[in-house]
Amino acid sequence: MSRGFLIRVGALARKEIIHIIRDVRVIYMALGLPVVMLILFGYAVSFDLDRLPFALVDQDRTPASRRLVEALTGSDSFTVAVRLDDPRAVEPYFRSNRLKVGLVIPPGFGRRLQRGEVAEAQLLLDGADGTTTSIALGYAAGVGQAETRRLLAKTGLLGDLGLRDRVRLRFNPGMKSARFIVPGLIAAILAIMAVLLTALTVAREWERGSMEQLFATPVRRVEVVVGKLLPYVAIGMVQVLLVVAMGSLVFAVPVTGSLGLLFGAALLFLLGMLGQGVFISVVTRNQQVATQVGLLSSMLPTLLLSGFLTPVENMPLLLRAIAAILPARYFIQVLRGVMLKGNGLRELWPDLLALLAFALAMVAISTARFKRRLD
Amino acid sequence: MTGAPDAPPAAGEVVLAARGLARSYGPVKAVTGVDLTVRGREIYGLVGPDGAGKTTTIRMLTGHIARAAGAVSILGHDPLGNGGAVRDALGYMPQQYSLYGDLTVDENLRFFASMFCLPRDLYRERREQLLGITRLARFTARRADALSGGMYKKLALACALLHRPRLLVLDEPTNGVDPVSRREFWDLLAEFVADGMAVLLSTPYMDEAARCHRVGLIHAGRLLLEGEPAAPLAASAHGAVRVDGGEREAVAAALQGHARVLALSPSGARVRVVVARGGEDEVAAVLQPLGARLHAVSPDFEDLFLARLHATGAVQEWTAPMAAGAVQDGTTPTEEASA
């Protein structure tokens, strides 16, 4: 590293900091967006079932039917919103989106149970809302099984025989959504901000003509890239700190592993995303196009293909292949590992290696595509 | 712009040499076969109307764009091949605004000094000197985008001069600058050239060409004419006349397309005409019914340029864009001299 390299990179970074300080919007965006996204995602994206209202059609009206309803509402997962007489009256509630679940207990439910026959109750679900109904279905099925087992035990038919599954949820015992959303959110925020900010800043030099003046000086391309990126690396690290702190204070998401490892991984991830931003702006040379391409190329894959919300393992082959080269995927694995499981380097080195490889590749590609020409 | 060019320079060494430059944008041939040589202690003016190929030529010379054909040597280096050596020797001021508008005068100067790795002491010394001669010293804390057009150009010039380049390339440096600032700008250039610098600049203004040591007239991507500004004027085979009296548009309509009329341009309320030698009587006869008489003036660059265009068969607009510079400055100096 020559003296000239350090002088020019230092001057470019200093100039970039002045741009950022004088354009308050960048600071608002850099610090405001993470907070807004964390609050939005943290509260809105929840897979926890909390007092989901349902329509009850109890045509039996016996102690047995009331017991089933109590079993369902007992844990505060469900709550009875409306009592109806006719099963057909449930559908209008589905159509108008007022309710998504209905329970029909037909006449004779209690009598059949008393006779030791199979008694049936019907669960109606609004399939148009797949997420809610699948969570509701899973929960209701669990309640049904538990009730069956309880009834069998009472008749003495089953006794203590049969399976008793002992489920133990490790790392997130309460199945709190925030615990697995916050790590993914850190990745999403960093990806979007880093790609967007750098895409904008480099494209601006093209658009405003300063690139022409810059190219008349002895500055080297790699110096422009490094000098422009340094301030945004610092901003990115502040964002990580902000989101981790908020995740811990507001959503009680712990960091059980090493903070150093977390920040190291964040640094590698940031470099890759910043490189992607430079690449986009070098190719588009236009702030407006760079913004749109930057947003699409960072937000969509990070939200959809990284395992943030839906597991990568269930995707079709093509999407899994894309996910395999997506740094957000490895970063989220590292974050969940460090924050929830307390994993160390021994478990995480392959993910870190993938992040490093992507960062190096992106900086190399963007520098190579970065021509010292106006044409 | 008044004032004759400075005394002919002592023949400096060749700083910039270009041969056969060519470049197209799609089907449009922007520049074809341009040859140029610029020496030390010399201001070379690339003169031509908008769209003539001036910026394309300059960007090929500085290595900002690739060239389809031709060779460029700046102090023996190709700007495309050995960029580092060229950029240390080159000061460049693009036509468009290209400093950082949200940075102050001082911050811009300091930034570009850092790009050239100027040592601190040397930077202080040159900053002081450049702020003094550009009279920007009072505005060091002002943002570049809050400067007037003239001050902005002077700041851009200062930024391009910080590293004491041996070749200064200016693309339409006085575009959008008021007449007083333009004069100051030229005086600044003269100082630096006296110290041995070579200057290549482009301008659409004919009156500015008179302050260059040598000029090249460029039109439609070709150099039509090259030489010292005084020499081709003296050797001109044509006479320039001013038409006195008569209604301007009527005079123009009568002369348009006349065989002996080589060029026609508006000059205030009158018409300037370049007449082929010996054709004065014929032209005067045409104008007599309109109540207009001919008045001989000494030909200036614009006349020469328009006549030259006529010779190449190029279609000439009645209101040539060339006139913009002259109108901005009031009357052209040659006219006053001949009055």
Features:
heterodimer, A: 375 residues, mainly alpha, abc type-2 transporter like fold, 2 domains, four-stranded mixed β-sheet, B: 339 residues, alpha/beta, Rossmann fold, Alpha-Beta Plaits, six-stranded mixed β-sheet, four-stranded antiparallel β-sheet, 13 helices, 26% strand, disordered N terminus, disordered C terminus
Structure description:
The complex is a heterodimer of chains A (375) and B (339). With 375 residues, chain A is mainly alpha-helical. Chain A has two domains: 3-45 and 176-369, no CATH class; 52-155, abc type-2 transporter like fold (3-Layer(aba) Sandwich), CATH 3.40.1710. Chain A contains 14 helices and four strands. Chain A has helices spanning 3-22, 24-44, 63-73, 90-95, 109-114, 130-155, 177-207, 210-215, 221-250, 259-284, 287-304, 317-324, 327-341, 345-369; strands at residues 52-58, 78-83, 101-105, 122-125. In chain A, helix 10 runs antiparallel to helix 13 and helix 13 (327-341) packs antiparallel against helix 14 (345-369). The two termini of chain A are 30 Å apart. Chain B has 339 residues and is α/β, with parallel strands linked by helices. Chain B folds into two domains: 14-231, P-loop containing nucleotide triphosphate hydrolases (Rossmann fold, 3-Layer(aba) Sandwich), CATH 3.40.50; 236-338, Alpha-Beta Plaits (2-Layer Sandwich), CATH 3.30.70. The A-B interface holds A 3-4, 7-8, 10-11, 14-15, 18-19, 22-23, 208-219, 372-375 and B 59, 62-66, 83-84, 87-88, 90-92, 94, 96-103, 107, 110-112, 114-117, 156, 159-160.
Taken in chain order, the helices and strands of chain A follow as HHEHEHEHEHHHHHHHHH
Number of domains of chain B: 2
Overall geometry of chain B: globular
CATH class of the largest domain in chain B: Alpha Beta
User: How is the main sheet of chain B built?
Assistant: 6 strands, mixed
Radius of gyration over C-alpha positions of chain A, nearest whole angstrom: 28 Å
| Secondary structure: number of strands of chain B | 13
Strand order of the largest sheet of chain A: 2-1-3-4
Determine the strand fraction of chain A and express it as a percent band. 5-15%
- What is the topology, as strand order, of the major beta sheet of chain B? 5-6-7-3-8-9
Helix tally of chain A?
Answer: 14
Oligomer kind: heterodimer
The percent range for helix content of chain B is 25-40%
> What is the straight-line distance between the termini of chain B?
18 Å
SS class of chain B: alpha/beta
Low-pLDDT runs of 5+ residues of chain A are none
Q: How many whole angstroms does the radius of gyration of chain B measure?
A: 22 Å
CATH architecture of the largest domain in chain B: 3-Layer(aba) Sandwich
